[in-house]
Amino acid sequence: MTTTVARHSAILAEERRAARKPAACLATIAFVCVAALWATGFFDAERLLEGGPALAQLLREMVPPDFGRWHSWLKPLADTLAMSIAGTALAVLISLPLALLSAANTSPHPVIYQAFRIVLSGLRSVPELIMGIIFVAAVGFGALPGVLALALHSTGMVGKFYAEAIEHVDPRPIEAARAAGASSFQVITHAVLPQVLPQLADITITAGSIIFAPRRSSVSSAREASASS
């Protein structure tokens, strides 16, 4: 009896110790978040209250909207739509092969896996504005540098999500295809892609909606920065 009680006590003590680790992790995250908010002035109530009148004035100027110049919006809207479609298409075309090379279960070698993971991280780390400035200097003004900047920056995000979706596929169809003598290309087309097509479509739609957000201002800023330099 004493041995059983001692065993149960040890189990309960182990569970309590295991519960302390996630609690300590959450407390650390909460502390870091609060410290970041404090460092950025979020808790400066006086400053926030002073911004209230300016915000109210801005809202009064915005509502109701003035549609008297709607005809001047058509070309910018068409440019934004064309850039978003072209940027999404290029991002998908570039992201899929990169994702296959940076997914652990489809990459041909661990070195290639790590290398293309670094490539995707590098693409994500460069802001769109910087890419826009580079492409404006390379190909000149217009929608093209914006499309290239959006496509390459989005490739880092889309490729990462594609790779994670590919890594979580059921391995049994892959093993069956390889056991049947299928080539690597056949394994990808018949055992991998059919499993992840819904996830890839979801990621693509999400990326397209993000790219469709008003990015034309970023390209305009890139133009101004390039022209001033």
Describe the protein.
With 229 residues, the chain is mainly alpha-helical. Helices cover 82% and strands 0% of the residues. It is built from 9 helices and no strands. Helix 3 (74-101) packs antiparallel against helix 8, helix 6 packs across helix 8 and helix 7 (171-179) packs antiparallel against helix 8. The longest helix has 38 residues, at 2-39. It starts with a helix and ends with a helix. Mean pLDDT is 81; it is low at 216-229.
Summarize the structure.
The chain has 229 residues and is mainly alpha-helical. Helix content is 82%, strand content 0%. It has two domains: 2-62; 75-228, Orthogonal Bundle (MetI-like fold), CATH 1.10.3720.
CATH topology of the largest domain, which one? MetI-like fold
Which shape, going by the Cα principal axes? flat
Q: Return the CATH architecture of the largest domain.
A: Orthogonal Bundle
The total count of helices amounts to 9
The CATH class of the largest domain is: Mainly Alpha
The whole-number mean of residue pLDDT values reads 81
Task: List its traits.
mainly alpha, MetI-like fold, 229 residues, 0% strand, 9 helices
SSE layout:
Elements: H1 2-39, H2 45-62, H3 74-101, H4 110-125, H5 128-139, H6 143-167, H7 171-179, H8 184-212, H9 216-228
Helix pairs in contact: 3-6, 3-8, 4-6, 5-6, 5-9, 6-8, 7-8
